[in-house]
Structure formats: structure tokens, C-alpha cells
Write a structure and sequence with these properties.
Elements (H helix, E strand, L loop, with lengths): L13 H4 L20 E4 L2 E4 L3 E2 L17 H13 L4 E3 L11 H9 L7 E6 L1 E3 L5 E3 L5 H12 L4 E7 L10 H12 L3 E7 L3 H10 L4 E5 L6 H13 L2 E5 L17 H10 L3 H10 L14 H10 L6 H8 L9
Parallel strand pairs: 3-4, 4-5, 5-8, 8-9, 9-10, 10-11
Antiparallel strand pairs: 1-2, 6-7
Length: 329
């Protein structure tokens, strides 16, 4: 069945679409993604605490490290859905020598639950040997179809255009236009952008409606990133941070010692610093979604519990005050 496509209607407001932030503590809260509330990606309702698939394929992403046990990764995916996750972020370039995130998702979850929203991204790609390349507008269709084949789907719920770092000040309108054509053709339901500036969000919205912005963000974020998060809320767009736990470690994961402010808040609640980082992320606004990834079932449970961790206003202020220079200690 061909999916319906999004019209150019105004996006939903932040107050109309979000569920109230929970007040339960980690000790008493259910370990469910539903504890963090919901948001709408166009006409698709998702729990604000989702799951990122990048770490399913190996101990390090993109072919480095040791491939993960296949059945263990499949089990993590199934457990995530059991715990209320209905928003999974993936990409066809998430693969190691013997594991593909999209294939694992297909194997674990197909036939897919009706409420499951799978978000993917295009523009970067990797060839069969793992070398990176960047698609032209005409090549985006091939990347979309690669995701469709891997996931075993007839359409993609949300596709993010992941902008190359070298184009942080460039135009993305032509690539957005190519994806809009694929949306109109029924291959994509909704569009988003990733790794963008506020100016590029405006460029994209002038071409086609968006439902989300996916950018690096976490404790210690620069003012430009904080301003973009706030802008997304004003526009009714979901803001989906990646590296919310990893911080400066990015794909490699957390590196070095934890910031003392994070460690002290974690100790006060008897939780891990990663859980504090997730709770802080979700507290940045009802339009903020989290997509922590893991290949470890114990870490998955901890991530879900973070959705019910309530930080005090004083604790949030302490963590808000951390700046980029502080994170490089």
C-alpha cells in the first residue's frame, strides 16, 4: 500500500503534541520508554526515548572493533520494543564486516509492529569495502532503495538528509528537493535534516516540510546548538540529539574522565553519568527525543530507566552551566 505523504500544513505546536515530563525517580519508575512521554513526527506518534542502531553491529561502529554476537543484538532489539521503544534510528551505512544494522532490525522485528517508526539517513554512504562516499541528488534514490531492501519495507517512515561537515555553510536545497520527489513518489513518508545549521533548516523548509532535526547535542553544547534546539521547539520540529551520552567521544563513545558536575548529580541519585546525561537531554524540551544506542541488554535497561529520572531545577541549572571548554578538561 502506498503511504500517505505529508502536506505543507503548519507543524504541530510543542504544547499540543507533547506528554508531560514524568516526575517519578529512577528507583520507583517503570523501565519503559513510555515514561519519557511522546511527540509526533508528522502524523506518527513516538515515545521520546528511542533507540539508535549504530552500536548493534560491533564493539566500535563502521567496521572497527569486534562484530557483536548476532543473536545478542537481535535480542536487544526485541527487548527494546518490549520496553516501549517505538522509534528506531538506523542507516544502511551502519555495518561491520559481518553485521548490518538494517538486516538485524529486519530479522528481529519483522513483521513490524504497527506503531514502530524507523528513521534512517542518506547522503553519506559506504561501498562494499566500507569506504565512504557522498551521494549526488540523483544518487539519493539508490540510497533510499538500499534502506528499503535492508529493512524489508515498501516505504521509509522518516529519512534524514545527513549534511557533510564540509557543507556546514553551503546550500542543501537541491538534495532536499530530490528527497521531496521521492516522498511524492511514495518511497518516503516524512523528511528531516541532520548535522545542519539554522540557515540550512530554513533552506530545507523552503523546499519541503520537515518533521525533525538530528544534530550532535549534549551537556556542554555550544550556544549555537542551544539556539537551534530552541528554534526547533518554536517551529514544532522534533530535535533529536546524537552523541548525547558520548559527548566529545562521538562515535568512539565516552572518553576520558566524566565532568565533575555530571558525576556529582549521578552520585546524588545513585545512577550512572550516562543516565544523568539522558535525563538532562530529555529535560531540554518536550520536542527533544533521545536515541541512545547499545548492544548490551543491561545498558538498554539503564537507558530506559533514565527516561523516568527527574532532575531538580538546581541540578538542571548546574548541568546547563557547563560549557564546551569545561568538557575538554
Amino acid at each position: 500500500m502506498r503511504p500517505t505523504t505529508q502536506t505543507h500544513a503548519a507543524p504541530p505546536t510543542a504544547t499540543a503534541t507533547a506528554t508531560a515530563t514524568p516526575t517519578a525517580t529512577t528507583a520507583a519508575a517503570p523501565t519503559s520508554a513510555r515514561a519519557a512521554g511522546t511527540w509526533r513526527l508528522g502524523d506518527l506518534t513516538v515515545n521520546r526515548l528511542g533507540f539508535g542502531a549504530m552500536r548493534l553491529t560491533g564493539t566500535e561502529p563502521f567496521g572497527d572493533g569486534v562484530p557483536r554476537d548476532r543473536e545478542r543484538s537481535i535480542g536487544v532489539l526485541r527487548r527494546a520494543v518490549e520496553l516501549g521503544v517505538n522509534h528506531i534510528d538506523t542507516a544502511s551505512f551502519y555495518f561491520s564486516a559481518t553485521r548490518s544494522a538494517n538486516e538485524l532490525i529486519n530479522r528481529a522485528l519483522a513483521p513490524y509492529p504497527e506503531d514502530l517508526v524507523i528513521t534512517t539517513k542518506v547522503w553519506p554512504g559506504r561501498d562494499a569495502s566500507g569506504d565512504w562516499w557522498w551521494a549526488s541528488p540523483a544518487q539519493l534514490r539508490g540510497q533510499v532503495e538500499e534502506n528499503l531492501r535492508g529493512l524489508g519495507r515498501d516505504h521509509l517512515d522518516v529519512v534524514n538528509l545527513r549534511v557533510p561537515p564540509r557543507l556546514r555553510d553551503g546550500s542543501i536545497a537541491e538534495h532536499v528537493g530530490a528527497l521531496a520527489e521521492l516522498r511524492d513518489a511514495g518511497l518516503i513518508r516524512h523528511l528531516g535534516v541532520s548535522n545542519v545549521t539554522a540557515a540550512q533548516v530554513a533552506q530545507a523548509r523552503a523546499v519541503a516540510p520537515l518533521v525533525c532535526v538530528q544534530n550532535p547535542y549534549g551537556i556542554g553544547a555550544a550556544q549555537e546548538s542551544r539556539d537551534l534546539l530552541r528554534l526547533c521547539g518554536e517551529l514544532g520540529l522534533a530535535f533529536v540529539p546524537f552523541f548525547a551520552i558520548a559527548g566529545a567521544g562521538r562515535e568512539a563513545g565516552p572518553v576520558g574522565g566524566e565532568h565533575p558536575e555530571v558525576s556529582e548529580v549521578a552520585e546524588a541519585h545513585g545512577v550512572s553519568p550516562a543516565q544523568v546525561r539522558l535525563a538532562w537531554t530529555l529535560a531540554q524540551g518536550p520536542h527533544v527525543l533521545a536515541i541512545p544506542g547499545t548492544g548490551d541488554p543491561d545498558h538498554l535497561a539503564q537507558n530506559m530507566a533514565a527516561g523516568a529520572l527527574s532532575l531538580t531545577p538546581a541540578e538542571l541549572a548546574r548541568l546547563d552551566a557547563v560549557r564546551p571548554a569545561d568538557m575538554r578538561r
